[in-house]
Design a protein that fits this description.
single chain; alpha+beta; Rieske Iron-sulfur Protein; 6-stranded antiparallel sheet; 35% strand; elongated
Amino acid sequence: MKDVGVLNTTFSPRTTRRGFYVVAIYAMGAIISAALGLPALVYLLVPPRVRRQSEWVEAGEVAQLMPGVPVEMTYRRNRVDGWKVSSEKSTSWVVKLPAGQIVAYSPICTHLGCAYHWEQARSEFVCPCHNSVFGMDGKVLEGPAPRPLDRYQTKVEGKQLLLGRLTQSDPTA
């Protein structure tokens, strides 16, 4: 009989089956809340890993560029938005100047953001929406455009043309 008494002293005499189930239910609720809540808190409070990607994108081969003839190059650029990485198709107008320098222009007019095109007969970039006209050097020749065409940073590695950040042109240039 003394052995049975020892067993009863290790458990609280007030613990009932109902009390045990209540504690077990609260414990499972706490575990479930932690399992769902901790990832949500981490998502909200901890910034995503900063992915240091190269800002330079391969636009095409330099060999296809003829001096004084603009070429519209199409390429893909990855954009990181938080955890989401999306691949976007982009274009730029690339000109190899007679001095050998390569210039890449944004395909968007600086007036209202319309797409412009190269007119071979006039040797000018023309925005058909509001009649802005730009020279091969990107400067405004006619129209309401407030500044020259915006340019991408460019560099050549091997036979590939790489485009970097887009820099806004200076209105006084």
